[in-house]
Design brief:
mainly alpha; two-stranded antiparallel sheet; 11 helices; 61% helix; 4% strand; elongated
C-alpha cells in the first residue's frame, strides 16, 4: 500500500468521512467528461483565491516555521554543512561570498566596508549606506525625482541646442540664397521659403513654423518678422564685407 493511501485512510478515520484516492489522470478524465469547466481552470481559481493558503504560507501566521527554533542537533548539523561549503570551491561558496560582499560583511560576521551617514540630495533626510556606495538618495522615490529633474534639464538643453543650430542654418541659408530672400514679397513667404522649411525638417525633424520662428526670436513672431530677419542678416553681412 502506498504512503499516500495510508495517510488518506488515517484522515478518513479521523474525520469519519469516506475518501477516495485519485490520480492526476483520473481527475483529468472526470473534469473532461463530467465537469463544466477544465481542471486547469479550477487549479488556477484555487491558487488565486483569497480563501486558500497555497503560496501564502511563507508569511505571518500561515508560515509553518513561525516561532519554531532549531534544536541543538539541528544547529550542529547546519554548522557542519556550512563549514564544508566554506572549505570547498563550490558554486554555493561563491554565492555566499557574493552575498556577504553586497551586504558589506566578510566571513564570520566581520565588517569589511564601514557604513556612513549621508544627507539625501533631494529631501535632505539622513540615511546610512556603505562607504563605497555611490548612493545620494535616502529612498527610491527621491532617486526617481532626481532622475526626472536630470532628464528634464537634459531635454531643455538638447532642445535649446537644436534651436541654436536651426538659427545658424537659417542665417547661412539666407546668405546662400540672398537673391531669393531679398525678392520675396510678404504675400509669397510660404511659397518662396518652402525649400528652407523642407531642409530644416530633414536636418532637424522640425516642420512647425512656430518652433522655427521661436528658434530665431525666442518666441513665434510670424512669417513677416522671420523674412525681415533674413533680409537684415543679408544686409549686415554685406556691410561687413
Amino acid at each position: 500500500m502506498s504512503s499516500a493511501k495510508i495517510i488518506l485512510d488515517k484522515v478518513s478515520h479521523l474525520i469519519d468521512v469516506e475518501c477516495q484516492l485519485l490520480s492526476y489522470r483520473d481527475l483529468l478524465n472526470i473534469y473532461k467528461k463530467q465537469m463544466p469547466c477544465s481542471f486547469h481552470f479550477t487549479i488556477q481559481e484555487w491558487i488565486n483565491s483569497p480563501e486558500t493558503t497555497i503560496n501564502k504560507t511563507l508569511k505571518g501566521k500561515l508560515n509553518p516555521h513561525l516561532s519554531l527554533k532549531h534544536n541543538t542537533d539541528t544547529k550542529k548539523l547546519i554548522g557542519r554543512h556550512t563549514k564544508k561549503l566554506w572549505e570547498s570551491n563550490s558554486l554555493s561558496k561563491q554565492r555566499m561570498i557574493e552575498g556577504l560582499r553586497k551586504s558589506g560583511l566578510t566571513q564570520k560576521g566581520k565588517i569589511k566596508v564601514p557604513r556612513v551617514e549621508r544627507l539625501c540630495v533631494v529631501c535632505g533626510d539622513k540615511f546610512k549606506c556603505l562607504k563605497t556606495s555611490k548612493s545620494k538618495h535616502c529612498k527610491q522615490k527621491c532617486a526617481a525625482k532626481m532622475n526626472i529633474q536630470r532628464a528634464t534639464k537634459q531635454y531643455v538643453y538638447n532642445r535649446q541646442q537644436v534651436k541654436n543650430e536651426i538659427k545658424s542654418f537659417v542665417i547661412e541659408w539666407a546668405k546662400e540664397n540672398k537673391e531669393l530672400v531679398i525678392n520675396t514679397p510678404y504675400n509669397k513667404i510660404k511659397t518662396n521659403l518652402a525649400p528652407l522649411m523642407h531642409h530644416i525638417q530633414l536636418n532637424f525633424g522640425v516642420k512647425d513654423f512656430r518652433v522655427i520662428s521661436a528658434s530665431i526670436f525666442g518666441e513665434d513672431k510670424g512669417r513677416k518678422k522671420f523674412l525681415e530677419f533674413m533680409k537684415d542678416t543679408i544686409s549686415n553681412s554685406e556691410k561687413i564685407c
